[in-house]
């Protein structure tokens, strides 16, 4: 287990180096993109992309299925069985890509043409964005089996490197926007499509050269197709409901309040997305080991990994999110310059929901490892669909726009509770009390450390000095409390011994 933990640590390091680079560049490009496009075009791109996100829900489900089955076969299977699994997954993704194209060019196109609220004179640009988004989605769908293979093999070094190339290319896209004489929204859509295609090509070439199983072979295994499709089918139902919950809220905001508030929603998505992306690297590093532990029936080890992953995720997330939450107004002003209306409220509330969602991702890995996703999918889907109905009623009754994010956060909490409960049913070695007690202790530390940091914000006006002071004080208090009150005596001793060996007394 010590070797496996070392592998997790190394993979996490690779991913965090990449994520830090992506975070820095992403913060700049987001600001530059908002300035280059303007608030209205920025909002148009966000809402149109949301429609495609709603249509590609099946792909999100298949991504989970691909990762689970490929990782499982790497632990227990032969090269022939790995090829069969990869081929089945790839064929299914091609079918999904065709389905996405058909739905996108029919139902989706009808909505854009007839229902989308777009400023006068920008519908032509919106159609360009929409078509680019469709083909970006298709490329991403076909790319999934190759991404899953890289994750299953735990080749996080390449994943980090190529992700950094991706963000670097997006930086070049922003630069080209500033010097362009063409319609910037249309040009941005075309350039992003080109970047997506180039990145997908890189994954394809790497997997074909490095992994023997990444070749499509003829498969006549009805049971395997049935198992993969059954897993993906229930996961797809869940993904559809989740996409409807997030993108449906985006569309409802568009219908009731217009594209300006969609711009605010896009900002909140970026903020929570950057922090989740940075933190979820822990989950990416843990995922193969959790699935492999289940594959070899080492359930105690699996349970330990799940609890450790949750603790690490929650701790890492709050170390970044809490200072930003407290200083959100200043951060957005410093970052964007032009802060869309309601962006501060949207961002703050969405961070709360993102925290619950991050914990849920770990619980879902445990459930997906067992392949018994049916009941969890049903429960989560019901909760997600109800949240959309509740939001529609609230908006119809005159609720404020930020009601969407309050409902989103509450729903994420309900889904987290459902996932932990279902994980316990499938894995008896996983005790709910130990999970909840660990989470509760970390939450207590968050509240106490956050209270001290908030007190600092009341003592002086907003400034760069205050922002860094809040970050320093909160993280110092949190890390010390985590070390003494969360970590076990044995782990603390290991850290002390390692530190002495590396840095001396």
Q: What features would you describe in this structure?
A:
The chain has 17 helices and no strands. The model has no long low-confidence stretch (mean pLDDT 78). It folds into two domains: 429 residues, no CATH class; 60 residues, no CATH class. With 505 residues, the chain is mainly alpha-helical. Helix 7 crosses helix 8. It is globular and about 60 Å long.
What descriptors fit this protein?
single chain; mainly alpha; 2 domains; 0% strand; globular
Distance between the termini: 28 Å
Proportion in helices: over 70%
Count of DSSP H/I helices: 17
* Class computed from helices, strands and strand pairing: mainly alpha
Radius of gyration: 23 Å
Largest sheet: none
Shape: globular
Structure summary, number of beta strands: 0
Quick take:
This protein is 87% helix and 0% strand.
Q: How do the strands and helices of this protein lay out in sequence?
A:
Elements: H1 2-55, H2 57-76, H3 79-114, H4 123-152, H5 156-179, H6 184-210, H7 222-257, H8 259-279, H9 281-295, H10 299-326, H11 328-336, H12 343-370, H13 374-396, H14 403-426, H15 432-459, H16 464-485, H17 489-503
Helix pairs in contact: 1-3, 1-4, 1-5, 1-7, 1-8, 1-9, 2-3, 2-4, 2-7, 2-9, 3-4, 3-7, 4-6, 5-6, 7-8, 7-13, 8-10, 8-12, 9-10, 9-12, 10-12, 10-15, 10-16, 12-14, 13-14, 15-16
